[in-house]
Structures are given as C-alpha cells and as structure tokens.
Design a protein that fits this description.
With 202 residues, the chain is mostly helical. Among the domains are: 5-63, Multidrug-efflux Transporter Regulator, Chain: A, Domain 2; 71-127, Orthogonal Bundle (Multidrug-efflux Transporter Regulator, Chain: A, Domain 2), CATH 1.10.1660.10. It is built from 7 helices and 6 strands; from the N terminus they run βααββαβααββαα. The chain has helices at residues 11-18, 22-28, 49-63, 74-81, 85-91, 112-127, 179-201, and strands at 9-10, 38-39, 45-47, 71-73, 101-102, 108-111. It has a 3-stranded antiparallel sheet with strand order 1-3-2. β5 (101-102) and β6 form a beta hairpin. The longest helix has 23 residues, at 179-201. The N and C termini lie far apart (141 Å).
C-alpha cells in the first residue's frame, strides 16, 4: 500500500477522530477484516483519510448489534455463563473467541447467539486434551548384593575412639613459674638455711 505522506496522520490523531483510545485501535488491529494502517520505517502507525472512513464503517458494523435483537451487558452474560465478568474480558484475548459488540461508550454487549457461541467455545476448550506429559523417572535402588561388605585395604585399620563414660577433668588453670624465678627462690632458700646454720652452730 502506498499513500501520500502529507495525508497520513498519527495514531493519536486517528484515535481522537474516531473517539476511541489508541490502545483500542491497537487491539482492533488483531481482529479480522480490520483496515490495517500504514507503517513508517521506524514502525509507527499512519492512517489516511480513506482508512479512517473504512475504520468508521467497520466500527459501526462491529459495535452496533443487529436490529430487533436482544443484547445483554457483560454482567448478565457472565451470570448466564456462570463465570465472572473479568473472566469474559480475559477470554476475549484468546483465539476463536466470539467478540462482543460495543456501545459508543465502549461497553460490551452480547446477543443470545453470541452467548450460545461462547458456551460452545468453552466446551471445546474444556474437552481439548492436554499434551501428553511423561511422568518424571522414578529412582529404583539397585538390588542388595549377597556378598558381605569387606572393608577396603586402603582404609585405616584403626577404629575411632569410643567416647568414655567417665567425666572429663577440666583443664588445669595453674601457671608454671619461669626457670629464672625458680632459681632465685632456690638461692634465697639456701642463703636462709646457711644464715640460720651459722647463727645457731657457729
């Protein structure tokens, strides 16, 4: 597709012209038969006047339910389907889900045919078999050998000491005197004995 670049407008201006949000335009692009915008080399969206008119026509056909057909708000629809409104909103993002109509204010509307289509869709999703998942391998211990266990000759033959039943003595807290102090004390004792010996017997 080619169009004159002077006639192209950004997604912001296109959303303002269509009275919707930019996120709504981006979401509509994923729906079938939606007029796709142009793209700049940088990936930005651009819309021509012809595309805006096509989107406006698509919007009217998409958002307006058929005439003389009863349509239900999302709360009543969720009640009939026995689900929550948030679940319905989440289902809209899944493939092959019947898209609801939209009011000019953006509210969702469902016809009776759409509700039946959603029921069928939900049944198909519930009955779809899940992919086969093989169970994790179970560990099987090897069979016990009848040969008695023999210790390896490389292992130490010493048996570990068994703990004694007697209470262990606390380590001694006494301190030994240095050799120099012992020599001085011995010299003093000898000098004392010599002095008494001289005093008593000489």
């Amino acid at each position: 597709m080619t169009a004159h670049k002077d006639n192209l407008i950004s997604i912001t201006r296109a959303a303002e012209s269509l009275n919707v949000s930019t996120r709504t335009l981006q979401r509509w692009e994923k729906l079938p038969n939606f007029p796709q915008p142009y793209r700049t080399p940088g990936g930005s969206r651009r819309y021509s006047p012809t595309q805006l008119q096509e989107i406006q026509n698509w919007k009217q056909n998409k958002t307006q339910p058929p005439q003389n057909v009863t349509h239900h708000p999302i709360s009543q629809t969720a009640q009939q389907l026995n689900v929550s409104p948030r679940t319905l909103q989440r289902w809209e993002k899944l493939p092959n889900f019947p898209q609801p109509y939209r009011t000019p204010g953006g509210s969702r509307r469902y016809t009776s045919d759409q509700i039946n289509q959603i029921k069928t869709w939900h049944q198909q999703q519930s009955t779809t078999p899940s992919p086969d998942v093989s169970p994790p391998p179970t560990f099987t211990p090897p069979p016990e050998s009848e040969t008695p266990f023999l210790p390896s000759p490389y292992l130490s033959s010493q048996t570990p000491p068994t703990p004694s039943s007697q209470p262990t003595k606390p380590p001694s807290t006494s301190k030994r005197l240095p050799i120099g102090q012992i020599a001085i004390i011995a010299a003093l004792l000898l000098l004392t004995h010599w002095w008494w010996y001289r005093f008593l017997y000489l």
